[in-house]
């Protein structure tokens, strides 16, 4: 079988369908209980092996230096974990997800890079090894590496598959960036929510970051209140995005249009953006990798 030299893969968004903060570790990181689910929408990454050993990424992201970009950090981390020379790679990012939006875009980019390069470089690392590498890049990377909707504990690295409902969602990004470290470091953050079981969480939970985020950015509170007129809306992660589950694509489309209309006639700030997407319990990244596997097993391309 010829090994592939290029690959295009999705880097989907995630939602935290609930997020309880149950403690704080000695290193300052917080212990969470959360339900992670993927959206069938997000960024796309293209990878093409090079003749030399250089790793390139384009385009640059505004406000993120090359050394900080999680895509390059993931590629270099993987390269350094292997004791032999590897070909370089040209990576192109088609960015759609807002940064600092609580949709995990940077973490998802990192996970897609780890899985894509494991494939192209034919390293054969298992998911545990890739998730461990990913965790050193960010607390949200492991769930994207593993690719199943999950009940997450610890800092979100202890993951058990969770069978969540898969509604349509309308997601509003209020055009404000919320610092994850700023929310977790806030003196008024609730950090002692009692532990619950996954089955209890599946019946409904809340996001402990909401009160602090409302205080830091009252406009995000307004977005939550607006969407709660349509369903059980919630903040994802530390925000700024707010999502509202809806029972059909038609209801999601209607609400999306209503918000767009409100933005157009200046009822809402024009820095807001809105999109609709479907929740999925297998990550679109893993769906794409499984299709690759099937086509290489059957010789179909
Ligand atoms: C809020 C969530 O998105 C929920 O899924 C994640 O817990 C955040 O994950 P992430 O963006 O990958 O976060 P990281 O890049 O690892 O951490 C950013 C900063 O947030 C704080 N942080 C993050 C995660 C966590 N469980 N406790 C924390 O206190 C730390 O100050 C850390 O320096
Ligand atoms: N490839 C990347 N894409 C997006 N952000 C990146 C990337 N590389 C580094 N970053 C940095 O990571 C920060 C967080 O980005 P990300 O898109 O993951 O935020 P988020 O959606 O709030 O994530 P989370 O829910 O994990 O807090 C950005 O503000 C940016 O500075």
Automatic annotation (TrEMBL):
Binding-site list for ATP: 98-108
Family annotation (Pfam families): GHMP_kinases_C (PF08544), GHMP_kinases_N (PF00288)
Keywords noted in UniProt: ATP-binding, Isoprene biosynthesis, Kinase, Nucleotide-binding, Transferase
Active site: 14, 140
EC number(s) given by UniProt: 2.7.1.148
Coiled coil residues, start to end: none
Protein origin, superkingdom: Bacteria
Pathway: Isoprenoid biosynthesis; isopentenyl diphosphate biosynthesis via DXP pathway; isopentenyl diphosphate from 1-deoxy-D-xylulose 5-phosphate: step 3/6
One GO MF term: 4-(cytidine 5'-diphospho)-2-C-methyl-D-erythritol kinase activity
Substrates-to-products reaction catalysed: 4-CDP-2-C-methyl-D-erythritol + ATP = 4-CDP-2-C-methyl-D-erythritol 2-phosphate + ADP + H(+)
GO biological process: isopentenyl diphosphate biosynthetic process, methylerythritol 4-phosphate pathway; terpenoid biosynthetic process
Residues covered by the GHMP kinase C-terminal domain: 203-259
Domain GHMP kinase N-terminal stretches: 69-147
Record has Transmembrane helix as a keyword: no
Record flagged with keyword Acyltransferase: no
Role according to the record: Catalyzes the phosphorylation of the position 2 hydroxy group of 4-diphosphocytidyl-2C-methyl-D-erythritol.
Family statement: Belongs to the GHMP kinase family. IspE subfamily.
Protein's name in the database: 4-diphosphocytidyl-2-C-methyl-D-erythritol kinase
């Amino acid at each position: 079988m010829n090994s592939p030299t290029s690959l295009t893969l999705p880097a989907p968004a995630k939602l935290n369908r609930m997020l309880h903060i149950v403690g704080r570790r000695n290193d300052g990181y917080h212990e969470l209980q959360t339900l992670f689910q993927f959206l069938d929408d997000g960024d796309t990454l293209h990878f093409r092996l090079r003749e030399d050993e250089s790793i390139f990424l384009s385009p640059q992201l505004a406000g993120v230096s090359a050394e900080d970009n999680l895509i390059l950090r993931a590629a270099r981390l993987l390269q350094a974990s292997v004791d032999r020379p590897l070909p370089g790679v040209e990576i192109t990012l088609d960015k759609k997800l807002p940064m600092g939006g609580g949709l995990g875009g940077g973490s998802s980019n990192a996970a897609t890079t780890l899985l894509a390069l494991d494939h192209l470089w034919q390293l054969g690392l298992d998911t545990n090894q890739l998730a461990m590498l990913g965790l050193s890049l960010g607390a949200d990377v492991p769930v994207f590496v593993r690719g199943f909707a999950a009940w997450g504990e610890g800092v979100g690295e202890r993951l058990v598959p969770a069978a969540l409902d898969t509604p349509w969602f309308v997601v509003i990004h209020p055009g404000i960036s919320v610092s994850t470290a700023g929310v977790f470091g806030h003196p008024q953050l609730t950090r002692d929510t009692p532990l619950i079981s996954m089955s209890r969480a599946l019946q409904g939970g809340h996001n402990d970051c909401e009160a602090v985020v409302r205080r830091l950015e009252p406009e995000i509170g307004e977005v939550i209140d607006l969407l709660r007129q349509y369903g059980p809306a919630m903040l994802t992660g530390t925000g700024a995005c707010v999502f509202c589950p809806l029972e059909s694509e038609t209801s999601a489309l209607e609400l999306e249009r209503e918000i767009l209309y409100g933005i157009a006639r200046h009822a809402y700030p024009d820095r807001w953006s809105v999109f609709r997407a479907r929740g999925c319990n297998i990550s679109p990244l893993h769906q794409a990798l499984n299709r690759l596997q099937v086509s290489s097993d059957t010789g179909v391309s």
